[in-house]
Amino acid sequence: MKRRLNRLFFVKPSLQVSKLLLGKYIVRKIGRKTLAGKIVETEAYPGPYDKASHAYGIKKTPRNRAEYLEGGHIYIYLVYGMYWQLNISTGKEGYPECVLIRALEPIITNQSRIRIANNPELENIRESKLEMDSRFCVANGPGKLCRWLKLDKSFYGEDVTKSKRIWLSQGEKIKPPQIASGPRIGIDYAGAKWAKKPWRFYIKSNPCVSKR
DNA sequence: GTACAGATTGAG
DNA sequence: TCAATCTGTACT
Q: Does nucleic acid strand C have an atom less than 7 angstroms from the CB of A115?
């Protein structure tokens, strides 16, 4: 959980950052509990020229103003009246671009390792296929990962390079051959030209990449 | 003030 | 395939 990603990491174009984020860990502190998840799927929304972007045409509203913040700030919003979507702003201040975090693979933290080691019953559960399957399913979508990490409007604009309750860390090295790309999800309203752009990135054959 | 649709999800 | 559920945004 060490080696927190710094400002320099995020002040780059979202098309770069979205790929670099694969394999990185999101660490979330809730009271004395720590949750961590490996980022396995992202989408880039690279700027105001992108018709699928909330900031299309340099549109700036109370809802999307966090997109304009310097790289490393959280842009979070509600869709369909019930699901939060976690984005991280990238690039320079004043230019609206961001990366949508679409899926995480939950990581067994040291904390839970110790708890498991001290409790043989939990050890058995951890080994069971059932447990593995359920672990892989709690954060395999943008709405689900926010529910799992307990993220909501209160994180709007949060600086992940400074925050004490959420940050990103180095995680695991992902080699380019392990990265796949495809069209972004759920943005058909933007028209085929933009919906077809291969700006969704994910780790090949990872079980936590979102379905559909 | 009112209408409308959405960067999703899980059930049928 | 469809409804749930709600708020930002646009328009009367």
A: no
Rounded Cα gap, residues A75 and A158, in angstroms: 8
Q: What are the structure tokens assigned to A176, written together?
A: 């380019």
User: Mean pLDDT over all residues of chain A?
Assistant: 90
What is the tens place of the pLDDT at every residue in A67-124? 999 999 999 999 999 999 999 999 999 999 999 999 999 997 766 665 555 554 545 5
Other Cβ atoms less than 10 A from the Cβ of A9: the count is 20
Nucleotide with the nearest C1' to A64 CA? C8
Nearest nucleotide to A139 (CA to C1') is B9
Distance CA A7, CA A73 (A): 10
Residue type, A151: L
Q: How far is the CA of A108 from the C1' of B10 (A)?
A: 26
Q: Which helix (H) or strand (E) holds A37?
A: strand A33-45
What does the alpha-carbon distance between residue A2 and residue A59 come to, in Å, rounded to a whole number? 37
